[in-house]
UniProtKB/TrEMBL annotation:
Family to which the UniProt record says this protein belongs: Belongs to the TMEM242 family.
InterPro entries named in the record: TMEM242
TM helices/strands, residue ranges: 31-54, 93-111
Record-given protein name: Transmembrane protein 242
Keyword vocabulary terms for this entry: Membrane, Mitochondrion, Mitochondrion inner membrane, Transmembrane, Transmembrane helix
Species of origin: Didymodactylos carnosus
Pfam family membership, one: DUF1358
Domain of life: Eukaryota
């Protein structure tokens, strides 16, 4: 009976620690990135809206006399014409670029004779040059925090300085 109680207590502690670990993983891997990107998106939307609001307020100025009214009317016409021209240019550029990319990709797809994307990828890989990764395992790519990254950069810089000093000593000898 005592053995069962001890087992129950240890399994309960394990399940509690597992739950705590899952909770931490959820917070750090899922929740914080969502909150961060939501904050960035909100700031972007609000700043864009604020900029548009201020620009509209500036555009709707009330003129003091007839000369200012005529100048303001002329500016509005030029602004509207320029706006239309830019919108037309952007629309045409979008249509041309999408048509070109889709057409070129379709041409390559039909030339390859592939039945699915996997075959097409292998066919393109056989035509394209191979990219070799030099010194793949010699450099670190993941760091726990910013301090560790900065320390790694400092250490690498010191190594390079030492190598340069050795080369200079060898050249002088």
């Amino acid at each position: 009976m005592v053995l069962n109680e001890v087992t129950l207590v240890t399994t309960t502690k394990q399940t509690i620690s597992e739950r705590d670990e899952k909770r931490k993983n959820f917070l750090f891997e899922k929740l914080f990135p969502v909150v961060y990107f939501s904050f960035i998106t909100t700031v972007g939307v609000l700043s864009g809206f604020g900029y548009a609001f201020v620009a509209t307020k500036k555009r709707e100025q009330v003129p003091d006399n007839e000369a200012e009214a005529a100048a303001l009317l002329n500016n509005e016409r030029v602004y509207r014409d320029g706006n239309r021209l830019a919108l037309r240019a952007l629309t045409r550029a979008t249509i041309y670029s999408l048509t070109g990319v889709i057409g070129f990709s379709s041409f390559l797809w039909f030339m390859s004779g592939a039945k699915n994307f996997q075959e097409f990828r292998y066919w393109m890989g056989s035509w394209l040059p191979k990219i070799s990764s030099k010194n793949q395992n010699q450099e670190r790519t993941e760091f726990k925090n910013l301090t560790e990254l900065i320390q790694y950069i400092i250490d690498e810089d010191e190594k390079k300085k030492q190598q340069k000093k050795l080369l200079q000593k060898q050249e002088q000898s």
